[in-house]
Design a protein that fits this description.
Elements lengths: L15 H9 L1 H4 E3 L10 H5 L5 E5 L5 H9 L4 E6 L2 H14 L4 E5 L2 H8 L5 E7 L17 H10 E11 L2 H12 L4 E3 L19 H8 L5 E7 L1
Parallel strand pairs: 1-4, 2-3, 2-5, 3-4, 5-6
Antiparallel strand pairs: 6-8, 7-8
Helix pairs in contact: 1-5, 4-5
Pfam families: Methyltransf_4
EC number: 2.1.1.33
Protein name: tRNA (guanine-N(7)-)-methyltransferase
Length: 227
């Protein structure tokens, strides 16, 4: 087991609606990472079809995730989150949008990728606005470290993408340095200034981006591709 994790397991009381989502929707939409049987998840069986699998790490309260899944019905979209109310809210949002191509994983994404995802099987991994752990003494808790990037790269199919976004400049620089050093990845936008990807129009503006804009921070996107 890892001695350092990138998240804090927050508590929080669920609303009536979020609890209803857990009671009514979770049995068909969700699974708990710690309760998965040994071996890789059969995503084709879970979704009831064969389609490219996209994993989003840290779906938060689900506003962006629900929209992204709704906008890409051709994907089998898997959201991984540790925050119970967030997953409840994501299920409510997905229900409202009529999303059918979304499944939820409750637990540690590193454990999921390590023990329950086959190498070379994912079409993409998304990591939008992870906890920046801004204090220098906490940088070791940031999820984007060489070991994590190597793990993500190993799970991507050739041509699959690892798309990150952050509004903390020194974290963006760390992401760029670590991913550029991973031999299985190449920067899709290496020719752009700084190697940053243009902000995709399809990615909804999050509350974190709005807050960053108010506070004068610039958001950066990075898109690396499995070679």
């Amino acid at each position: 087991m890892r001695s350092v994790v990138s998240y804090v397991k927050r508590g929080g009381r669920m609303t009536v609606g979020q609890q209803r989502a857990w009671n009514e929707l979770w049995p068909s939409l969700g699974r708990t990472v710690g309760e998965l049987p040994e071996g890789p998840v059969d995503f084709d069986d879970w979704f009831g079809r064969h389609a490219p699998v996209m994993v989003e790490i840290g779906s938060g309260m689900g506003e962006t995730t629900s929209q992204l899944a709704a906008a890409a019905p051709e994907l089998n979209y898997v959201a991984v989150e540790v925050y119970d109310p967030g997953l409840g809210q994501l299920m409510l949002r997905a229900e409202k949008l009529g999303v059918e191509n979304l499944r939820l994983m409750h637990g540690d994404a590193v454990v999921l990728l390590t023990s329950h995802v086959e190498p070379g099987s994912l079409s993409g991994v998304r990591l939008f606005f992870p906890d920046p752990w801004p204090k220098k003494r906490h940088h070791k808790r940031r999820i984007v470290q060489p070991e994590f990037v190597a793990l993500v790269a190993s799970r991507l199919a050739p041509g699959g993408t690892f798309h990150m976004a952050t509004d903390w400049e020194n974290y963006a620089e760390q992401m760029m340095e670590v991913c550029s050093a991973e031999p299985l990845l190449r920067n899709r936008h290496a020719g752009e200034p700084g190697g940053w990807a243009p902000r995709p129009e399809w990615r909804p503006i999050t509350k974190f981006e709005n807050r960053a804009d108010v506070e004068g921070r610039i958001s950066h996107d990075l898109i690396f591709e499995r070679v």
